[in-house]
Amino acid sequence: MRIAKITAASVTTAALALGAAACGGGGTPAASPTQAGSAPASSGPAGEGKTLTFWRLGDTNPAAQKYTDELVAAFEQKTGAKVTVQWIPWPQVNDKFTAAAAGGTGPDVTEIGNDQVPLWQSQEALEPVSDIVASGDQTQIPKNLMGLETIDGETYAVPWGGGSRAVLYRADWFKELKIEPPKTWDDLVAAAKKIQEKKGKDVDGFAFNGGSDANHLLGALAWTAGGDYAVKEGDKWVGKLTDPTFKAGFAQYTGLVTDGLSSKSRLTQNSTDIRTRFANNKVGMYLTASWDLAGIEEDSKGKLKGDKLAFFPLPSKDGGEAQSFLGGNDIAVWGTAKEKDLAKEFVKLASGKEWGDKYAKDGGLLPVYPDSLAALSSDPAQAPFAAAFAKAKAFPASPHWTEANETKAVLQNAARSVIEGKSSADDALAKANTELEEILNAS
Question: What integer pLDDT is reported at residue 3 of this predicted model?
Answer without folding.
Answer: 32
